[in-house]
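Trying the structure run again after the queue cleared.
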Amino acid sequence: MQLRYSFRLYPDAGQQTALAKAFGCARVVFNDALRAREDARKANLPFPKAAELSTRLITQAKQTLERSWLGEVSAVVLQQSLRDAETAYRNFFASLKGTRKGARIGPPRFKSRKDTRQSIRFTANARWNITDSGRLNLPKVGAVKAKWSRTLPTTPTSVTVIKDAAGRYFASFVIDTDPHADAARMPETDTAIGIDLGLSHFAVLSDGTKIDSPRFLRRVEKKLKKAQRELSRKQKGSKNRDKARLKVARAHAKVADARREFHHQLSTKLIRENQAIAVEDLAVKALARTRLAKSVHDAGWSQFVAMLEYKAVRYGRTLVKIGRFEPTSQTCSTCGAVDEPKPLHIREWTCGACGAVHDRDHNAAINIKTAAGLAVSACGAPVRPGAIPAQREETGSHGFPTQPRAA
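Done. Tokens:
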């Protein structure tokens, strides 16, 4: 499988200027390619081929007075920008036909010089390399200082240089890894776990473990409000506004980095200790439109589950997702009786059929594990609570909730 390794770069002033030129030239070539295709569409002409665009927008453009500055950057960066435009159109048409997985995507849009995130890609043809002193040598940029937090397992074929909204530079490598070798590094275990994701606790495991929610955004909310207020008072287009915007972006980047690190550590721990993991397929987009939106975004459930998914594939573990309409919070994990829906403030309830007292989140985690078929009996066979005859007052269908349910 392919994994992305990112490392922090520290270019000096001259290298930052060279990278800014490369970002701008790649953006111009990308926009020229979109404009050429859009003009052909309006004229009812076939889309120009990639080779034709390369000749017209790069080779011939360098010889003109208006685009002569394209020769100041590596030609590989410009060629890759054309490939990115081609890929964007290919993904758009595949999405229209329904052959592309995931949500529907729109047509490619023009890139703005005011975008807070810029990137360029150097392929093997650019002859970039890592020097003996540990610097990343890029054509027409120079040897950039890099902080290598870990060793690359294999030699990458390309590198993407990224400048984020906080003004930080990163080198991103795509590495092909061997899942069998990665799985051999993990300790053998036959443990299975169910995870109930929530807001009062980030995760409650079926074995009773409760993991507190760090609430990274909530902890710095006052500081962010102050920085955002200062930004709103600055005059648009001024240098002071740029400084204030950078201050806000750095504060948000610090929160995002802390959240990502927490997700990485927790997901790796769970993957290492368990052979199979069950989670609930939550409707995060729908929950993010409710009054709980800020807390839902702060928790970052989607990012955490995505980490569990790729790490399970990488290390030979099993991840099972159960349906979001499974009544995990209303089902008694002892006898299997389904109780009526309960508001979120009720964190503990008693089963009317067997009298068992349940912690809401722990009970849901057990039911998630059972619904995924990961619970086993003493003989090792998967078990699931059998159907319990409904009480007289429980007969009939309660129907599905109109709003997304938060366990």
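The two ends are 33 Å apart (CA to CA). Worth checking whether this holds up in the mutant runs.
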